[in-house]
Structures are given as C-alpha cells and as structure tokens.
Design goal:
Layout lengths: L5 E5 L3 H25 L15 H29 L14 H14 L15 H25 L6 H4 L4 H4 L3 H33 L3 H7 L1 E5 L4
Antiparallel strand pairs: 1-2
Helix pairs in contact: 1-2, 1-7, 2-4, 4-7
The structure holds protoporphyrin IX containing FE (2 copies).
Length: 224
C-alpha cells in the first residue's frame, strides 16, 4: 500500500457536488426550523405584539428551504439517469452478488473495525449506496407529507398536487406527527454519515472527504 502507484479519478461531477452541498445545507435549515415549528420557545418581548413575527419568519424559511430541497432532489433523480457511472442509479441498489459481498465487507470494517483492507468500489461502496437509497426514500416521504400539509396554506399548483395526502394519512395531526418523527432520521443519518465519511477517509486513504469538494479520489492503479 505504501508504495502503490496512485491514480487520480474524477468521481463526483459538478452537478453531484452541487446537489450534495445544497442538500446538506437545506436539510440543516429544515431540521432547525422544523424543530422550532414543532417546539416553539415562548419568546418574550416588550414591543407591540403585531411587530413580533419571528414564528412567521421561521415558517417562511422552512418553506423556502423546502422548495430548494425538493427541486434539488428532483434534479438528482434526473442526474441518476444521465450522470457518469458513479452517479447512476445502479450504484444505489445492490442487485449483483459482488455488491452484496461488499456490503458484508464494509459492515466488518464499520462495525467490527476488523479488516482495514482497501475496499473495491471507487464510487460509493455498496453499503453506502443502500443507505443513500434509503435516505432518498426518506426525502420523498418528507416532500410528500410536507407538501401535503402545505397544500392547505397555499394557492400554488405544486402543493395542490399533494392535497390528497392529508386525508389519506388520517388528517393534519397524523401527517405532522409522521413528518416530525422523520426529522430524527435526518439527524441520525447526518451524524453517522459524517462519522463514516471521516472514518473511511482514514482507513481507505483515498481522499473521500475532499472528493465531495473537488470531485477527485486517489485510487491504487491496480484497482482500476
Ligand atoms: C429534511 C426535510 C424536512 C424536515 C427535517 C422537516 C421537519 C419538520 C418538522 C420537525 C416540522 C414540525 C412538525 C410538528 O408540528 O411537530 C415541520 C413542519 C412543517 N413542514 Fe417540514 N420538514 C422537511 C421538509 C419539508 C418539505 C419538503 C415541506 C414542503 C413544503 C415541508 C413543509 C412543512 C409544513 C407545511 C409544516 C407545518 C408548518 C405549520 O403547520 O406551521 N417540510 N417540518
Ligand atoms: C460536513 C458534512 C458532510 C460531509 C463532509 C459529507 C461528505 C460526503 C461524501 C465525501 C460523500 C461521498 C461518499 C462516498 O464516496 O460514498 C457524501 C455522499 C452523500 N451525502 Fe454527505 N456529507 C456531509 C453532510 C451530509 C448531509 C447533512 C446529508 C443529508 C442529510 C448528506 C447526504 C449525502 C448523500 C445523499 C450522499 C450521496 C450523494 C449522491 O450520490 O448523490 N451529506 N457525503
């Protein structure tokens, strides 16, 4: 490993990197504003009540971030069909035997911290691919329930498409509960995700963390 010949591989194209950071930023804003909507603090102020509109602002920011999050997500779905081999949908669904083998290998590294032998994938490893796929389903759920609730507050065409969700899921209260509970998925996902990115950066030594900034990974030549 020490003397291995290293090649530079352009893995994450610009649209994937833009998607990633817009997504990370909007999720952060949605979690913070969503939490405040669910548990509003009693803000005391000496000014005229009608001047205090902080909760309206929090909701506005939530909805603004929600539209950004939604269109960014739609763009990533499209890019999964036209992007390079590392961006395509095949990477997210383990349908080949080698991918399932790799899931087992990565679990050994991530959970049992056993072997630190370099993993085979240049793009996402098979386990990472599955967890991103699960997170995409969570994104979808959050958009459906969010726009379902938003339909009652808006005259716009897009939310109106989701108006049927609220009666289907048993009313506003139930939808808000589900939407709220799913927030914790994002909190957990982000914490574990960032930890694993840093950990794999260390065990693989391929520059994983910075790959989502510059697009490049550094891979042993005999692996290509
Ligand atoms: C990662 C994505 C998201 C997270 C983590 C999130 C989180 C939350 C949370 C925790 C609440 C408070 C629920 C409660 O009452 O306890 C909330 C409310 C709400 N969210 Fe989201 N949300 C996300 C995406 C969206 C999207 C895409 C929309 C679409 C417009 C949306 C629309 C709404 C609406 C309409 C409410 C209710 C606001 C109110 O009644 O004042 N959210 N969100
Ligand atoms: C400082 C924070 C973060 C860093 C350093 C980071 C870094 C990375 C890196 C390096 C990858 C590619 C890993 C690989 O080779 O498999 C990746 C992928 C990904 N990350 Fe993050 N991430 C961060 C925050 C987040 C957050 C907050 C979210 C959303 C909740 C997120 C969602 C994703 C998704 C969905 C992918 C797959 C990207 C794709 O193929 O479209 N990340 N991240």
């Amino acid at each position: 490993m020490q003397h291995a010949q290293i090649s530079r591989v352009y893995v994450w194209q610009l649209p994937v990197r833009f998607y990633h950071w817009i997504n990370a930023l909007s999720v952060l804003v949605l979690v913070i504003t969503g939490y405040l909507i669910g548990s509003p603090p009693a803000v005391q102020s000496g000014s005229e009540a009608s001047f205090g509109y902080w909760f309206g602002t929090v909701r506005f920011v939530h909805f603004l971030a929600a539209f950004l999050f939604f269109f960014n997500f739609v763009y990533r779905i499209y890019w999964g069909f036209v992007g390079n081999r590392y961006a395509r949908w095949q990477n997210f669904i383990p349908y080949r035997k080698e991918q399932l083998e790799e899931v087992k290998e990565v679990l050994k590294v991530d959970i049992f911290q056993r072997s630190v032998k370099p993993l085979e994938s240049v793009g996402h490893n098979a386990l990472a691919g599955i967890t991103y796929f699960i997170s995409f389903i969570a994104f979808l759920f959050q958009c459906i329930t969010g726009f379902g609730m938003y339909a009652a507050m808006s005259k716009a065409a897009l939310p109106a498409l989701f108006a049927w969700i609220v009666p289907l899921m048993g009313g506003d209260f139930a939808v808000r509960q589900w939407h709220h509970a799913m927030m914790w998925f994002f909190v957990l996902f982000s914490m574990i995700h960032v930890y694993l990115v840093f950990y794999h950066d260390y065990v693989e030594a391929r520059g994983v963390t910075s790959s989502m900034v510059g697009g490049w990974k550094f891979v042993e030549k005999h692996k290509l």
